Amino acid sequence: MNQIQIILVEPHPVTRAGIKGILTSVDGFFKVREINNILTLDSSSIGDRNQLFLVIIDPECLSISLPEAIERLKCYYSDLRIIVYSSISDNSNREIVLSYLRCDIMGLICKSSSIKYLMFGIKEVYNGMSYLSPEIVNNLLNLHNEGERKMVEIWNGLSSMERKIVKMTLGGYTIKSIASELNTNVSTVYYKVKTIQKKGNFENKKDLICSCKKVV
């Protein structure tokens, strides 16, 4: 596997040093770029913007919202995969967890997770998979509504592109407009919609929209 490029967004120097120490302890496996204040990010500090970067970010430490932070990062980096690394736990408000999942992220890892789960999650996201740490899964499985629980499990099984298509569909986009927005062709979006319907066992597009509104 190639060296994984990491952008570590963390304002607290002690925490930042601890996380970087963990990542760099794997000899030559991770290259870590630190950002202590996302608002001061500029073109002189971004490095090679065309590489694939994994962003490890704690939303609770940001001075702006998570969606705003992600959009700001996207202005400078063309290929990002976002991992939220948070102090949230299985006792936290599930609405916070769901609010993170509604953002364009691929991983959600609790800071209380072992190093093993942190490393595994990073590798999964690097390989294009979604990942939730065990504490986050426990949080979501405490849902009382069986329908919501099922939808969370389905959502976690969708790819990044499939999640974008679901969100845009909920926003009223047509298949043609989704294709234009994602810079792909109509047949690809149509195939993705069918794949999503199959994964969720939805009868049709209307069923998909009604069901996804519960968690997206």
The main pleated sheet reads as:
6 strands, parallel
Q: How many independent structural domains? A: 2
CATH superfamily of the largest domain, called what?
Answer: Response regulator
How far from one another are the termini? 34 Å
Which parts are unreliable, with pLDDT below 50 for 5 consecutive residues or more? none
What is the CATH architecture descriptor of the largest domain?
3-Layer(aba) Sandwich
SSE string, helix = H, strand = E? Answer: EHEEHEHEHEHHHHHH
If you compute it from the alpha carbons, what radius of gyration comes out, rounded to the nearest whole angstrom? 18 Å
> Strand order of the main beta sheet, please?
2-1-3-4-5-6
As a percent range, the share of strand residues is 5-15%
| CATH topology descriptor of the largest domain | Rossmann fold
Shape descriptor reads: globular
Output the number of helix runs: 10
**Count of beta strands:** 6
Average pLDDT works out at 79
Give a structural overview.
The chain is an alpha/beta fold and 216 residues long. The chain folds into two domains: 4-142, 3-Layer(aba) Sandwich (Rossmann fold); 156-212, Arc Repressor Mutant, subunit A, CATH 1.10.10. The chain has helices at residues 13-24, 66-74, 94-101, 115-126, 134-141, 146-156, 160-170, 175-181, 186-200, 205-212, and strands at residues 4-9, 30-35, 52-57, 79-86, 107-110, 131-132. A six-stranded parallel sheet has the order 2-1-3-4-5-6, sandwiched between helices. Helix 4 (115-126) links the parallel strand 5 and strand 6. Helix 8 (175-181) packs across helix 9 (186-200). The relative contact order is 0.10.
